[in-house]
Amino acid sequence: MSRLKVTAALVAALGVVTACAAGTTTPGPDGKALSGQTVEVIGPWTGDEQLRFEQVLAAFKDKTGAEVRYTPAGDELPTVLQTRVQGGTPPNVALVAQPGLVEQLAKAGSVKVVSSEVEKAVTEHNAGVWKKLGTFDGQLYGVHFKSANKSTVWYSEKAFGAVGAEPPATWEDFLKVGRAVVDTGQAAVSVGGADGWTLTDWFENVYLRTAGPENYDKLARHEIPWTDPSVREALATLGELFGDSRLVEGGATGALQTEFPQSVINVFGDAPKAAMVFEADFVASVIRTSTKAKVGEDAKFFKFPAIGGSEDAVVAGGDMAVQLKDDQATTELMKFLASPESGRVWAKLGGFLSPNRSIPVDDYADDVTRELAKQLVDAGDNVRFDMSDLAPAAFGGTKGAGEWKALQDFLANPKDVDAAVQRLESEAAKAYQK
């Protein structure tokens, strides 16, 4: 999900802030080992998320005595981070949403291999897939601290009640419920097609369930082409929804003009136009801030439906902590972020999910978040990271280009699967060669 961008002036101002972590391990006057040392962290979080993360950092200070400065970079984080690295003023720690960027930084020698203690914590507290996501050339560089469950469909309890529907467990039942809703005069699903990233999430969930985790991994690495029959099958399945203008609010034209927040409001606002919206757990935040609906009562969710008897699986996003300086205070902060102790601080504040299975589910702030966290952890190694975030940004993360644009074109004409796969492969081939 796109985050609020900080202004260029703010980024420039923040860019001059540098960490000054001292090398001494002599306890300060308060008796804490890291007193007098300072660590700088760059992260994507602004607003309420920033305030909550700063409470996590305050807990680290209380424990160790180290000062922590937080630099919010919003959507500009990759650019800000790379500029700081190239300019010789890297932060101590950065929270990065793109494993591809972490791999790039690792190959350039800009991020450090984590300590054995951090690696032990990651192994102990997370499913193996999360360790694998932070491992490049056999060495672990990152700790996944905050995650998003991107395999959820949110629905209006009122709309489902009007047709006597239960949350569907299969794709067939999902379409069946949608058609029943259409008969009441509402659309089935609101699609935020103006934001191309939402369409990548749709595709990834369908592909994971039709092609399986092994093919998902291959496609993410471009080891199989986007013209592969497995891609065609996934797009044809997705076309069963996108190709029925009655099911999609506003049809393809309307969906392509709908941004993500509006797609949520279309379901839970004062004048609802659809019964369901697909997206990650952060839908709840939009519901709370932009509608009068109550999450867990008026607004509920179900797992992305199984397709062809597929096993439960979760497409996830998230932010990986990486270490750019090699000193005691930085290493101790990485250990803290890898521990359940840090995640428990934010979990109790709300708006947080973690792949850390050692965080008690009761620590999460509400029933909805507890269920989302449980699904993420229970999926174990059937979790797959957001494929577009694994891809080169030119293909998987550029507005109006690459995968985003190709899937928008597919939404406009879902019957032409051949044109879609050819466009996707052409764009992927160019991006992966760079």
Give short descriptive properties of this protein.
globular; four-stranded mixed β-sheet; six-stranded mixed β-sheet; SBP; transport; 48% helix; 12 strands; alpha/beta; D-Maltodextrin-Binding Protein, domain 2; 434 residues; disordered N terminus; single chain
Task: Summarize the amount of helix as a percent range.
Answer: 40-55%
Low-confidence stretches: 1-25
Q: Quick one: CATH superfamily of the largest domain?
A: Periplasmic binding protein-like II
Main β-sheet description: 6 strands, mixed
Q: How much strand?
A: 5-15%
| Number of DSSP-assigned strands | 12
Q: What's the number of structural domains?
A: 2
**If you consult CATH, what is the topology of the largest domain?**
D-Maltodextrin-Binding Protein, domain 2
Main structural class: alpha/beta
Please state the average pLDDT score. 92
What is the top-level CATH class of the largest domain? Alpha Beta
Give the CA-CA distance, first to last residue.
Answer: 25 Å
Taking all Cα atoms into account, the compactness measure Rg is 22 Å
What is the helix tally?
Answer: 20
Shape-level CATH architecture of the largest domain:
3-Layer(aba) Sandwich
Q: Any idea what the shape is? A: globular
Short description:
It contains 20 helices and 12 strands. It is an alpha/beta fold and 434 residues long.
Q: What are the SSEs and their pairings?
A:
Elements: H1 8-15, E1 38-43, H2 47-64, E2 67-72, H3 77-86, E3 93-96, H4 99-107, H5 116-125, H6 128-133, E4 135-136, E5 139-140, E6 142-149, E7 152-156, H7 157-163, H8 171-182, E8 187-190, H9 196-220, H10 229-242, H11 251-256, H12 260-268, E9 274-278, H13 283-290, E10 299-303, E11 314-323, H14 328-338, H15 340-347, H16 367-378, E12 383-385, H17 387-390, H18 393-396, H19 402-412, H20 417-433
Parallel strand pairs: 1-2, 1-3, 8-9, 11-12
Antiparallel strand pairs: 3-11, 4-5, 6-11, 7-9, 7-10
Helix pairs in contact: 2-15, 5-14, 9-10, 9-19, 10-20, 12-13, 19-20
